[in-house]
Design brief:
The complex is a heterodimer of chains A (about 290) and B (about 775). Chain A has twelve helices and 14 strands. In chain A, the strands form four sheets. Chain A has a five-stranded antiparallel beta sheet. The model of chain A has no long low-confidence stretch (mean pLDDT about 95). With about 775 residues, chain B is of the alpha+beta class. Chain B has three domains: about 160 residues, Aldehyde Oxidoreductase, domain 4 (2-Layer Sandwich), CATH 3.30.365.10; about 200 residues, Alpha-Beta Complex (Aldehyde Oxidoreductase, domain 3); about 200 residues, Aldehyde oxidase/xanthine dehydrogenase, molybdopterin binding domain (Aldehyde Oxidoreductase, domain 4), CATH 3.30.365.10. In chain B, the strands form seven sheets. A seven-stranded mixed beta sheet of chain B has the order 3-5-1-12-9-10-11, sandwiched between helices. Chain B has a five-stranded mixed beta sheet with strand order 7-15-14-13-8. In chain B, strands 18-26-27-28 form a four-stranded mixed beta sheet, with helices on both faces. In chain B, helix 10 runs parallel beside helix 11, helix 11 packs parallel to helix 19 and helix 18 packs across helix 19. The C terminus of chain B is likely disordered. The chains are: A alpha+beta (about 290), B alpha+beta (about 775). Chains A and B meet through helix 12 of A and helix 4 and helix 20 of B.
Amino acid sequence: MIPAAFEYFAPKNLDEALRLVERHGDEAKLLAGGHSLLPLMKLRLSAPRYVIDIGRIRALHGVREEDGRLVIGALTTHHDVESSELVRQRCLLLAEAAAEIGDVQVRNRGTVGGSLAHADPAADYPAAMLALEAEIVATSSGGSRAIPAGEFFVDLLTTQLRPDEILTEVRVPVAGRRSGGAYRKLHQPASGFALVGVAARVRLGEGEKIESVAIGMTGVAAHAYRAATAEQALAGKKPGAKLLGEAAGRVTEGVDTLGDMHGSAGYRRAVATVYARRALEAAIARAGGKTA
Amino acid sequence: MATATKKYVGKPLKRKEDPRLVQGIAHYVDDLTLPGMLHMGVVRSPYAHARIRGIDTTKARSAPGVAAVLTAEDLAGAIGPVPCAAQIPDMKAAPRPVLATGEVRFAGEGVAVVVANSPYTLRDAMELVDVDYDPLPVVVDPEKAVRKDAPRVHEELSDNAAYRWELEGGDVKKAFKQAERVVKLRMTNQRLVPMAMEGRGVLAQYDRGDQRLTLWSSSQIPHILRTQIAAMLNFPEYGVYVVVPEVGGGFGSKLNVYPEEALACYLAMKLGKPVKWTEGRRENFLATIHGRDEICDMEFAVKRDGTLLGMRAKIFADLGAYYQLLTPLIPTLTGLMICGCYKLPNVRVEITGVLTNKMSTDAYRGAGRPEATYFIERGMDAVAAELKIDPAELRRKNFPKPEDFPYATATGLIYDTANYQGAMELALKQAEYKKLRREQAAARKKGRLLGIGVASYVEICALGPSSAMPAGGWESATVRIEPTGRVRVLTGSSPHGQGEETSFAQIAADMLGVTMDDVIIVHGDTSAVPYGIGTFGSRTLAVGGTAMYRCLENLRDKLLKIAGHLLEEDPAKLVLRDKRIVSKRDPKKSLPFGEAVAAAYTAKSLPPGLEPGLEATNFFEPSNFTFPFGTHVAVVEVDRETGDVKLLKYVAADDCGNVINPLLVEGQLQGGIVQSIGQVFFEEAVYDEQGQLISGELTDYALPHAADIPRIETYHTVTPTPVNPMGVKGVGEAGTIGATPTLVNAVVDALAHLGVRHMDMPLKRERVWQTIQEATGGSAGKARKAR
């Protein structure tokens, strides 16, 4: 557990950090909470020449509400998200997902931006961001761009971020009335990552019909994804046990499912269905004003 | 128990050890630093089986900060092989060299050792050692390994069957002829990683002037280690000093002698500087002994009414590639304990110890007994299911009665004393067994999968009479009452979490009528304490504690003689109480404890013929093992959609004889049961076909978390043993022995009405889910009704 040698920078503000990123690009790694990067370095699976510790950049911390959106700084810890009154009131799904990450120590150090940028195929936030239709803001010295969550995750540990960009914040639309969301997760018992994680968001409309629905899936494939066919099966319909069961049965349709010693592809598909149904049931109940 | 007073013994006192541990001011090996200290690292084979064509160390040698790089060739036989103390008739030789010589036989075997001036330069240099491997065929499955066409782990051996061990008692053939039913079951007890929180660690220092070699090691057996290091290095034992500081858990994994211990000593001597090696977690997975890994085919001959007539067990034990200290011995303990706590007059056990391209197995908490108990207790449930008898009733019917003790088993053991039914009835009552069965029936009607597991166990503790132990089974103690009246206890037992600084102090304080603060327990330093055997096999209190007890009796009698002389009172009429020596018939006739002690040292007024000083040494040789027992009950609910198992209730009724400190007993039981929860639901050392340990990181090897553990209720019956004067039996392993079959029985019971008869551990969710799918024809996820 001894890393290879590296050069360490601790920029105090974003501009300084961006200049370093621009200069060292491919040979540099950004250090936020360090809960993915440091273990990889200690196992010498990753040996970056430069480590740029962005932890001191105050501006990237914290949650605020702005124009009907929650704006979450990239360095906001999982614990801050989980325990934020604002997040709990406006977006319970996100607080639920944060609360399911790792353990207390991990949640006290790990950050939203770090987790999203790392894009572990079994991380919790990606599913939540997809279901919430969040935007992920990437900043370079040339300016900022907002990447829709649906486009952000490209492949295993691969995102739309360029080497000269820093993930600075996440913008999450605040749900209106008659909306509800939930995150349900089956833990991989050793790592605590999701064997299957399902984020579901539902808005009910006229006649208790599902007006809009989004389902984010993690742990199942090489990267987090939206379960589009399941969403289509639900849209505009009145939810009932039969409909939810059928729709949940489609969440892995057309997906190249992961399989490993913790769960075969077949098992993951089976529990993905179960957890999707459970997440949808909870989201619908919440949309209808019930606690779940 | 014959202590003068009972101020401490029997009380749930907090551990004397804990303040320094919880404050972080205790010292483990890795906390030690010596001037000029160098760091050692072992370059390990990525292959499970390969010929070493060559090792190029030139680059590593010239890397900055590197003091030495050595291979087996450089050692040229300077260090003997890893010792194995176990001898089984006709056993093939499979000694482990300290560095691979010509061939590697498991992934993780050391091929070179690097020494550098910091952990960082060390890691960099280790990457520069270039080993040219020629991969050889690999064998990982013990049943395949004994086939004629299997690749051989050791080319020079005729095959991979290290030994065959057979034991028969009674007339097994006849029993099976008379059987009204024969019940068969095949079971696997999977391979586990002991996973002590503190990995292994070694620091060696050589003083050229005194020719004194000091080895600090995280070990359970300081003296055996000293003797073996002296032998491996061909160095006089009087020049070797082993010190065991704080040990962060062992579970048997540190009841061993490892290559790194000898290598660090050799290098410290060669380089003239202290050498430290601290194991990484990955190394701990690969190169510290593993536990269990036995496959058992068991067959019962029974009468329709549930009477057991006989049993056959055929066991394959995976030993790994080499023998560590006790590798071949452990499976034979399974054989000896295979009858469990039942009248089983006719038994045949056949064990094949098999060599494979994996890390060695050896003693892991319970060492052979959890396997035996698991097999017999799963077997009992299979018999109960086959005969449609309640599993508790079947056990009740076959227990020997309290008056049958001492009870001779068909495997040749003499169980000391027990009341198996007493402990079982207590567990059943506390768990409300009858009510649970009613709840289960109601739950099943609603489609819920509720399971109740019962298992009874007997284990073998206080290891043990020397006649039955490879390296002696006694234990030693010296007790010295110092001139100021403080008591120094030197024990040959060397704890790694057992809390003997507390329990031994309780006994000593009560025996001498002083306070616990007046007593210090010294252990683990071979230059301070008399030669000892070590801590394993739930022996510390029963054997090591008894050695101390004998010393205390001796000193108590001497003090009473001195006091009798000074007080002009018959010593038989005196007692030690509250730091005074008091006459029972005339309380006014008394003497401060300290005055009697001082008199022993000033030696001016001693009874004629009595030697000065207050020191006693005892080597206690037990006449038999002890056999603690108990019954555990577990209640689980299975999620039929996911196979997830919720542990709803756990009740344990254990009997470890007299209890010195109920809090320590509770801790041992809770910890052991949690470790079983690990084996049953989470843990497995998985080697793939190429011999790669694929569950070799904590991100893949799951351990139980606090949130997985229900409230564990513990109860006790007390049946003191006649084997030692305190009537204590041992409790260090009981939890892992009783809980494993209890939990599996519960999960199988939850699915019994679906036709499920057995599942192998670990009961991971997918395995349980798959079993439900197969039993219900794939309808479990949809139909919510029971079949």
